[in-house]
Amino acid sequence: MKKFIAIIPLILFLYSCNTGGDTEGKEFFAKLNSQKITSHELKSDILESEIASGEIIYVPVYSSIYFRDDTKVYNLTVTLSIRNIDPINEIFIREINYNNSKGENVKKFLKMPVRVKPLETLDLVIAEDDTTGGIGANFIVQWISKTNAISPIVEAVMISIRQGVGLSFTENGRVIKKIK
Asked: Which residue has the higher pLDDT, 30 or 92?
């Protein structure tokens, strides 16, 4: 009887770890991302004449990875982190686009630029059950500043924990174009 009682919590834990393809994670993170963006969003765009510096950054991410063979995939939660490491100057994010393995845009996160204050971090999440990006997903992030600000650290953290097995890794963004 003791073995049976001990197995019940284990079964409940394993059942709670099931990702089952439901959309709860997608909806939760979509709402959370929207709140973060809204709280940082500017009322109007920044004029080109006001821009002193900026970059376009490519960030590789893996919303899924292969395991065993190319027919099995392991889905991951992706967190995009944009860290303004400048202790004095604010930066503005003009573009955050999520693209799939084919290079097609899956989601445009911004309608207006968002402000990231000195030493502040803006993060967005792609839910584990959101498989629209695929194995070769990526973000394109464009930041600008009205001053000669220090380039932000833009990186992605991928993680998944299932049935007592955890997998996590990071990817750094790469500058693909300087602005001014």
From this structure: 92
